[in-house]
Each structure stands twice: as structure tokens, then as C-alpha cells.
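Researcher: Here's the sequence for the chain we discussed earlier.
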Amino acid sequence: MRYPAKHKIATRRRIVSGASAALRARGVAGVGVAELMREAGLTHGGFYAHFPSKDALVAEAVDAAAEQSARNLRKVARRAPAGREFEAIVAAYLSPAHRDRPDRGCALAALGPELARDSLPARQAVARHLDALLDLLQEHMRERPGGSRRRRAIATLSCLVGALLLSRMARDRDVSDEIIAAAQRHLTGIAD
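Model: Thanks. This is the structure I predict for it:
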């Protein structure tokens, strides 16, 4: 039985969306094709009607995660008081909610170390995410005499991703909260 093209597109979106969350939650090595398809309500056999390989799905899922992250941070910036967009982005990124929900968060923090050693399409997808986040941060950084916004955006993103990773690895909630608070204070201190 052949399905209409719209059905195939909707099914592919469902697979990518589910894979995006599952990969961020459990990592590339922690989730298999059969499990991803089962979570989408489909059989393993249908996978190859949508993707040539798991690598292709991973790359598309990372792109979807990146779009979701960027969209969420842009929304945070739009809702912030004028002149406080950078601080709002930092607070949203370094929040307990983001720490506790890797399945809905930044692909760099959830998958970056693993994807750095993965297939070329996955590395390219995570590189696009890196560039998009750097652009977003640069856009909301204040001008400084003699300071490069790009260099400050790189340092900021490094701190954001590193602090989020460390907060997820901390031995207990108090240490995790301390890491988040210290990184927030540091980043908002350099914003002025």
C-alpha cells in the first residue's frame, strides 16, 4: 500500500523529532534504530524508506535539535527587557530546567563530545549549530572598545556549554546548582 507524500513527510518528521529527543537524552551510542522507530510507533523495517543510514538520521536529528534550541533562545531574547537580552539568554541556558532536560536542550551540551568523533554529516550538523549559537550570542553582546564580539561569543559559548556539562556531571544537586550560579555570575559580569 502506497501512502500519500504528505504522510511520508509527516512520518519522517515524527521519526526525526523522536530521534532528536532520544539522542540528546541517551546519546548516539545509547539508542539504536529499532528503538527510535519503536518510539515513533513504527517498525524497524520502515526505517530505510526514510533514511539511508543511522548517520543520516543522526545528522537530521541534530539539525532539528539545533533549530529548536536557537528558536527557544531567540524567543528568550525577544521577551527580555531591552538591553538585557544577553543576560536572559545566559539565565535560560544555565538554568535547572535546561540542566534537567537534556532531551529538550542544546545539542552541543548533550551530544557535542560524542559527535566530535562521529560521522562527517553529524559533525557538520553540530558545526552548523555551533555557528548559529555564536551568531545569536554576538547579536546580543554589547559593544566594547577594542573587544571582538566574536571572540567574546566564543568564550561565552564555551563557558555556557562547559558549565552545563559540568552541572550535569556534578555529584549532587548543591554542587550542580553552584556551578550554574558561578557561571551565570561570571558571564553576566563580563557583559557589562
